[in-house]
């Protein structure tokens, strides 16, 4: 391993200082460790090294060495290679480490590499109990995230069609990851685990997010608050479900002498509200307004089988 | 990541830090980058023989330990660490944002996330947002029960049947996944391992009794996986009910664009019945006798309530 690492350090030092694309031949003749007698041996060694560097996230690219594009060479752009200094304190690094240990993105806790790059730190707390798992699809999320931060076109298969979107952000809510993106017209939320084959395409900075964009607007925390109507519903929750209703409501509710609950709830989206209320089965009743009440009754009547 | 890549990443992180903190103590460099002293010396010796073509004394990097101080020089091209990969940056931001949303975060975390995002060139508040279901007083009480290994008395309403029971539980862990908080532990009442959904716990009371937790409690698994015992229903979804296929783990049997046929499975038929109810005319139950019975029963109970006199206020 020692020889491989020496060779890779020499290669990186050379590419970071060359300031121009360097052909494979030049690397073979110049960089210590690559001077193989045999063409095939050199080729295999160099291929392996390139893969390893790219997997580490090193921006190793192939570019033409001249305007006629006759010959190609390798470049590591120093600006793209380097991590800008966020100026973290030791305490801040420790906080990042801790949160990455207790909250995972599906399965394994993340390795120490990210923290080492940020300047390392006391990596205690590795035995902390798991507090949350943000679900799987970590690989898809990473591609979407790249599209978001580099402002590049993102394509993926979703419900049988290939989508091409401008990705704006990622939102984790009620147990799922959503990609908030513009498809040219609307801004909408796609469930990340329902898509596949995520790929970034084209140049960076190909779009701007609209001013005043708020990621949460794409998916409100209480579903009945996402809408254009403005109603105040009065709802009675029976005593056996009162505790459950109280826990979910944003508004304070009035407890009745018999233990039931009367709540006044702001509703912007009646359909979503009724959908939520039906989870209480016959233990909740809309007292008013009358139109909302009859809307629920109509919905229930219209449900059924063939 | 391969062993070689991990070792190289550590070198490419340690070198810039030492360049910026010339003469740092061996002990500090080791602690910061997780090195043993021997490993650190090996890596410094390796850096010492690398550098730029020519590979003479003026071309190689300088790296050594003297009087317990670490020195790295002639390595300006490695003066900054390698940038984070998208997966690494996302991992830090997502878990950080999640922890902030629980009120359990260390004070420094919010500032750290903001600095990190701004160095990477984006807006910390509007790029990766994680809302864990609210960390209530109840979650905190359960967490305390776990850390004190204290038996907890629960009043718990089971999900499918809606049955409420008293239980004595030895709590092992409290965690959030799929949008809900869960408690896992040994249920003394049921005599086995159980996972409880925290929002279905009506009441929790710590008892005076403690227990010895298993040395390594099994990792809780809360994933919905269809099982043989599930009740299945075939449902036709109209245009406005297509979201169901996005939201629930269903099997899409066919999709004409305007209509979608799905198979919905759940442990209890009331889940599909409640769903059909809220979809109204936008969905139809095509097959599934248990679901049909549950739907009819639920419909008539709700309609009966709304037919009754409106309660007086």
Strand residue percentage of chain A: 15-25%
State the helicity of chain B in percent bands: 25-40%
Contiguous helical run count of chain A:
10
The number of distinct helices of chain B, counting runs of at least 4 residues, comes to 9
The CATH topology of the largest domain in chain A comes to Arc Repressor Mutant, subunit A
Tell me the distance between the termini of chain A. Answer: 69 Å
- How many distinct folded domains of chain B? 4
Q: Which range does the strand content of chain B fall in? A: 25-35%
**Main sheet overview of chain B:** 5 strands, antiparallel
CATH class of the largest domain in chain A: Mainly Alpha
Largest interface: A-B, 120 and 120 residues
- The strands making up the biggest β-sheet of chain A line up spatially as 8-7-6-5-9
Shape of chain B: elongated
Number-wise, the strands of chain B total 13
- Classify the helix fraction of chain A into a percent range: 25-40%
Low-confidence stretches of chain A: none
CATH architecture of the largest domain in chain A: Orthogonal Bundle
Which outline of chain A best applies? Answer: elongated
Biggest β-sheet strands, sense, barrel of chain A: 5 strands, antiparallel
Number of domains of chain A: 4
Describe this structure in words.
- The complex is a heterodimer of chains A (306) and B (313).
- Chain A has 306 residues and is an alpha+beta fold.
- Chain A folds into 4 domains: 2-81, Orthogonal Bundle (Arc Repressor Mutant, subunit A); 90-133, no CATH class; 138-215, SH3 type barrels (Roll), CATH 2.30.30; 223-302, Alpha-Beta Plaits.
- Helices cover 35% and strands 24% of the residues of chain A.
- Chain A contains 10 helices and 13 strands.
- In chain A, the strands form 4 sheets. In chain A, strands 8-7-6-5-9 form a 5-stranded antiparallel beta sheet. In chain A, strands 11-12-10-13 form a 4-stranded antiparallel beta sheet.
- The mean pLDDT of chain A is 88.
- With 313 residues, chain B is α+β, with helices and mostly antiparallel strands.
- In chain B, the strands form 3 sheets. A 5-stranded antiparallel beta sheet of chain B has the order 8-7-6-5-9. A 4-stranded antiparallel beta sheet of chain B has the order 11-12-10-13.
- Helices cover 36% and strands 27% of the residues of chain B.
- The model of chain B has no long low-confidence stretch (mean pLDDT 87).
């Amino acid at each position: 391993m020692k020889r491989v690492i020496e060779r890779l350090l020499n290669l990186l030092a050379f590419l970071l200082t060359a300031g121009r694309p360097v052909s494979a031949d030049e690397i073979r003749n110049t960089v210590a460790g690559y001077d193989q007698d045999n063409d095939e041996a050199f080729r295999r060694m160099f291929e392996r090294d390139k893969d390893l560097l790219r997997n580490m996230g090193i921006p190793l690219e192939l570019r033409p060495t001249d305007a006629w594009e006759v010959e190609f060479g390798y470049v590591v752009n120093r600006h793209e290679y380097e991590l800008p200094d966020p100026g973290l304190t030791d305490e801040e690094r420790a906080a990042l480490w801790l949160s990455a240990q207790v909250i995972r993105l599906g399965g394994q806790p993340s390795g120490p590499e990210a923290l080492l790059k940020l300047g390392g730190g006391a990596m205690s707390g590795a035995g902390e109990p798991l507090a949350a798992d943000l679900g799987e699809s970590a690989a898809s999320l990473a591609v979407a995230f790249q599209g978001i931060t580099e402002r590049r076109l993102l394509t993926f298969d979703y419900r049988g069609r290939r989508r091409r979107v401008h990705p704006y952000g990622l939102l984790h809510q009620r147990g799922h990851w959503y990609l908030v993106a513009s498809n040219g017209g609307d801004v909408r939320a796609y469930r990340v685990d329902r898509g596949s084959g995520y790929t970034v395409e084209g140049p960076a900075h190909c779009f701007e997010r609209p001013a005043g964009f708020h990621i949460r607007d794409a998916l409100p925390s209480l579903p009945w608050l996402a809408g254009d109507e403005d109603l105040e519903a009065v709802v009675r929750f029976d005593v056996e479900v009162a505790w459950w209703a109280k826990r979910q409501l944003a508004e304070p509710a009035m407890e009745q002498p018999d233990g039931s609950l009367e709540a006044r709830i702001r509703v912007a989206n009646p359909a979503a509200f009724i959908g939520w209320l039906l989870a209480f089965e016959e233990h909740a009743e809309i007292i008013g307004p009358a139109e909302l009440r009859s809307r629920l009754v109509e919905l229930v009547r219209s449900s059924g089988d063939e | 990541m391969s062993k070689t890549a991990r070792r190289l990443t550590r070198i490419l992180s340690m070198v810039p830090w030492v360049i910026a903190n010339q003469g740092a103590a061996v002990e500090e460099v080791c602690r910061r980058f997780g090195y043993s002293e021997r490993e650190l010396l090996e890596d410094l010796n390796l850096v010492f023989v690398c550098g730029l073509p020519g590979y003479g004394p003026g071309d190689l990097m300088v790296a050594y330990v003297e009087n317990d101080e670490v020195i790295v020089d002639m390595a300006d091209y490695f003066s900054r660490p390698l940038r984070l990969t998208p997966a690494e940056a996302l991992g830090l931001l997502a878990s950080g944002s999640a922890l902030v949303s629980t009120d359990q975060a260390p004070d420094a975390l919010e500032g750290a996330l903001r600095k990190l995002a701004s160095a990477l060139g984006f807006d910390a508040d509007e790029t990766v947002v994680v809302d864990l279901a609210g960390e209530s007083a109840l979650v905190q009480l359960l967490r305390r029960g776990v850390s004190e290994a204290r038996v907890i008395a629960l009043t718990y309403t089971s999900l499918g049947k809606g049955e409420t029971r008293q239980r004595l539980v030895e709590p092992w862990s409290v965690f959030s996944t799929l949008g809900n908080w869960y408690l896992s532990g040994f249920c003394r009442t049921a005599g086995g391992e159980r996972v409880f959904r925290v929002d279905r716990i009506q009441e929790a009371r710590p008892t005076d009794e403690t227990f010895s937790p298993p040395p390594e409690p099994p990792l809780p698994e809360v994933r919905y996986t269809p099982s043989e015992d599930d009740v299945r229903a075939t449902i036709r979804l109209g245009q406005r009910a297509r979201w169901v296929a996005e939201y629930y783990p269903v099997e899409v049997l066919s999709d004409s664009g305007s209509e979608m046929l799905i198979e919905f499975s759940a442990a209890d038929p009331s889940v599909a019945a409640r769903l059909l109810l809220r979809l109204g005319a936008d969905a139809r139950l095509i097959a599934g006798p248990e679901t049909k019975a549950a739907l009819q029963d639920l419909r008539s109970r709700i309609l009966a309530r709304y037919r009754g006199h409106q309660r007086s206020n």
